[in-house]
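Residues and backbone
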Amino acid sequence: MAEKDMIKAIYDIAVALLLGLAAVGSGVGDGLVMSKYVEGVARQPEARGSIFASALLGVALVEAFPVIALAFGIIMLFTQGSL
C-alpha cells in the first residue's frame, strides 16, 4: 500500500512542476513578445497594424504551451502510469 501512495505522490509533484513551469515559461514568453512589439512600434510607428498582428500571433503560440501542458497534466494525474 505504501508503494502506491509513493507513486501517487510522485505523480502529483510531477504534475505540479509541469503546470508551474509551463505558467512561468508562458509569462516570460508573453513578456518577450510584447517587449519586442513595443520596440518595433517605437522604431516604425507607421507599421503598427502589421506588427500588432504578428505580436498577437506570437502571443497565441506562446499561450498554447500551457494549454498543452494542462492536457498532459490531466492525463498524468488521472492515469498515473497506467498508459
User: Anything to note?
Assistant: The two ends are 20 Å apart (CA to CA). The mean pLDDT is 91. Residues 3 and 9 are 10 Å apart (CA to CA). Helices lie at 2-43, 48-79.
